[in-house]
Design a protein that fits this description.
This protein is about 30% helix and about 20% strand. By secondary structure, it is α/β, with parallel strands linked by helices. The protein folds into 2 domains: about 270 residues, Alpha-Beta Barrel (TIM Barrel); about 140 residues, Lyase, Ornithine Decarboxylase, Chain A, domain 1 (Beta Barrel), CATH 2.40.37.10. The termini are far apart. The structure holds pyridoxal-5'-phosphate (PLP). The site of pyridoxal-5'-phosphate (PLP) has 16 residues, from helix 11.
């Protein structure tokens, strides 16, 4: 218990994180990871990631009844990097996957089926078959998907999904519901609106009764899933989504006359503070809110699964990019850097919704001093909207300096967007390094231009010309 309180009070202090980041940028320049020939990298703060994982565990340990099974499954889509998944595995954190690629990443990181949950909204019969054969937990998104699972579970089912049924899958199975409690401030990431594409819309006519019957007819449905949070959704609204889901589990179990639903998957979606280094809200606040708003959730009758993504990784990632040129246009200074739409796609296309903080470093990687000047920080792509930040007040960025886009550990540099065939930058993890102060480990090598050519049909160079008719595959 003492350790938990300590983690909550001292863990992930914004100041500690900022100091580690400053040291890492300087060390990256000193050690040659950043420079004229490698003008952009991503950095991951390993200490910070471990601290956030510990805070997550401690927050729920502090509220659940002793002995309650809890699986924290990291939403792989937030940072789909194998070494990150392996690091989290070491911290006792599993994986929530939503595509064949994400499942493959989780398996490559050594995550076993008991630590993996499959949730995607458009699973093919082949994916369902693989998940059930592996024993991975699956949440069915809709009635048609449940039909497919039926056909895999029940021998001699008339429904043909291809291949023989899986005789006795160990997969814990559930249904994803949408409590339709309303969205947050960001339309594109709100999952619990009335017309959201995810899960069974609980308040639609007949839907709740359909869900209850689906459980009563299938003794093997033992989980219930909802993911209602996301950036822009307040804690109270997230808690309401969980309360609705809990209420439905109670109803199913009452009507079944037994504890059929034994595990609630409450999703992820804790918002992240992109405005400063402080971590708000915290996992501890959210867990306490749930304990207050959903009495019974933590009393030991239900095992729990969580699926946090952004809140585990966002604040531990930094994109650092060299200022190639500094110029002025219409009286406004513009720093032309190597970080733009390829690493900060959401921010560039929706800057009002996803603003990023920028930190200025000098050519030696030291925090830049000087009066704040209103300037644009631009990326390398060939369209005028390619701005990391517009009109931001920073010490004036000059040629050879570095601009850092902060809080980019989730949904940014691990989500490369191949505009202008810009290469994926290298990503390094950093931690305390003894004599060198900061030590780096390669998490992902930079993509080479040869790889760009190969991934752009390089081997098919003559596919559309010459003697071969382009429309006549052999
Ligand atoms: C995206 C997603 C998550 C993670 O959301 P964050 O906002 O990154 O915490 C969890 N569960 C499901 C089903 C998701 O689609």
């Amino acid at each position: 218990m003492g350790a938990h309180i300590e983690a909550e009070e001292t863990g992930n202090s914004g100041a500690g994180r900022a100091a580690r980041r400053d040291e890492a940028v300087r060390a990256a320049v000193e050690q040659g990871l950043l420079g004229p020939d490698s003008p952009i990298i991503g950095l991951l703060d390993v200490t910070g990631i471990r601290e956030s994982a510990a805070e997550l565990r401690a927050a729920f340990d502090a509220v659940v009844a002793p002995g309650t099974p809890v699986l924290h499954a990291f939403a792989v889509k937030a940072t789909p990097l194998v070494p990150v998944l392996r690091l989290l595995r070491e911290e006792g954190v599993g994986a929530e996957v939503a595509s064949p690629g994400e499942l493959a990443l989780a398996r490559a990181a050594g995550l076993g089926p008991e630590m993996t949950v499959l949730d995607s909204p458009a699973k093919t019969p082949g994916e369902l078959r693989e998940a059930l054969a592996l024993g991975i937990a699956v949440n069915a998104d809709n009635p048609q998907e449940l039909d497919r699972i039926d056909a895999l579970m029940i021998p001699h089912s008339p429904k043909d999904v291809g291949g023989a049924p899986i005789a006795a899958s160990r997969s814990p199975l559930g249904i994803r519901v949408n409590p339709q409690i309303g969205g947050g401030s960001i339309e594109a990431t709100s999952t619990a609106t009335a017309t959201s594409k995810f899960g069974v819309a609980l308040r639609d006519e007949g839907a709740r009764e359909w869900v209850v019957r689906a459980y009563l007819d299938r003794p093997w449905l033992t989980r219930l899933h909802a993911h209602t949070g996301s950036q822009g959704v307040p804690l109270s609204l997230m808690a309401r989504g969980v309360a609705e889901t809990y209420g439905l589990a109670e109803e199913i179990n009452r009507r079944a006359g037994r504890r059929q639903v034994d595990t609630l998957d409450i999703g992820g979606g804790l918002p992240v503070n992109f405005a400063s280094d402080a971590t708000t809200p915290t996992y501890a606040q959210y867990a306490r809110t749930l304990a207050e708003e959903v009495p019974g959730l933590f009393d030991g009758r239900y095992g729990l699964v969580t699926e946090f993504g952004r809140s585990l990784l966002a604040k531990h990632g930094t994109v650092v990019a060299r200022v190639e040129y500094a110029k002025s246009a219409g009286g406004r200074p513009v720093a032309l850097t190597h970080a733009g739409v390829q690493v900060a796609t959401r921010t560039v296309y929706a800057p009002g919704v996803w603003p990023l903080r920028i930190a200025a470093y000098d050519s030696k990687g030291r925090p830049k001093e000087g009066p704040a000047v209103v300037q644009d920080v631009a990326g390398p792509a060939c369209f005028s909207g390619d701005l990391l930040a517009e009109g931001c007040a920073l010490p004036l960025l000059e040629q050879g300096d570095f601009a850092a886009a902060l809080d980019t550990g989730a949904y940014y540099f691990a989500h490369h967007y191949a505009y202008n065939s810009l290469v994926r930058p290298a990503i390094y993890g950093f931690g305390p390094g003894g004599e060198r102060r900061v030590a780096f480990a390669v998490v992902r090598e930079a993509q080479t231009v040869e790889e760009v050519v190969a991934e752009s049909g390089g081997a098919q160079v003559d596919a559309l010309v010459g003697g071969r008719a382009p429309w006549g595959l052999p």
